[in-house]
Amino acid sequence: MILFFNNGWYLPMSGGDLHVLEMARSWARSRDVGIAMPRWAYRLNTKRLTGVRHVATGGPFDGSPPGSLASLFARYAVRSVSGLGADAEVVVAASHYPYDLIPAFLVARRRRRPLVVYVFHLASMFRGAGRRGRLVGLWEALALRLMRRASLVFVDNQEVGEELATRGLARSAIHLTWNGVTPPQTAP
Predict the structure, then answer these.
(1) pLDDT in tens, 126-172
(2) pTM of the prediction?
(3) Coil, helix or strand for 32?
(4) Other beta carbons within 10 Å of 117
């Protein structure tokens, strides 16, 4: 099974989330694919996740969006722990943020399986983005350390790929993908 961790659903869906869901569905056409994500988000995206199994639950209260930050973190922790028992051939972190990367890294390490990480942007590349940008950037050093152990890192633009290589990720592990399933057509 290919196991995706798309654990960070709280705000509306981002372009990165959409890309990862569509990739999971695409891979599910020919492989066994599971996804660890909130149950309520999985139900909202059943059409986008045709053939993809929901493999981790955030407990009995995971059927609706969280009402508080404490509830969000509790559900994230329960989903992460319940996903640790999954037996996957490949483990995919839907982003380099801790809610996706840490449980994916732990499963990949525990099962001695390849880790794949999607990186759509790095907070440190947006200096001056205000308080939110600084808060997001706090875990970037940890994310970079964990990503150095990844077999494959997908980036959606060359700038992010270059930045990751500059920060110590092997260039051979970094692969450019598009933020969408099909790359744009080039002009004739």
Answers:
(1) 655 555 556 666 788 889 999 999 999 999 889 999 999 999 999 99
(2) 0.85
(3) coil
(4) 29
Reduced to 3 states (helix: H, G, I; strand: E, B; else coil), residue 182 is coil
Per-residue three-class SS string for 133-160: HHHHHCCHHHHHHHHCCCCEEEECCHHH
SS3 128: coil
> What whole-number distance in Å separates Cα of residue 43 and Cα of residue 48?
10
Which two structure tokens, joined as six digits, stand for 105? 């890294």
Residue with tokens 């509830």: 71
The token pair at 13 is 């869906």
| CA gyration radius, the chain | 16
d(CA 185, CA 16): 20
- Specify the pLDDT at position 29: 93
Q: Which helix (H) or strand (E) holds 23?
A: helix 15-28
Q: Could you please report the per-residue DSSP string of 44-79?
A: HTTTTTTTEEEEE---TTTTS--SSHHHHHHHHHHH
Give the integer Cα–Cα distance in Å for 143 and 173: 15
Judge whether 61 and 76 are in contact, CB under 8 Å: no
Could you tell me which residues come within 8 angstroms of residue 166 by beta carbon, excluding any fewer than 6 positions away? Answer: none
pLDDT in tens, 59-92: 777 778 777 778 777 877 777 777 777 788 999 9
Place of tokens 């290919």: 2
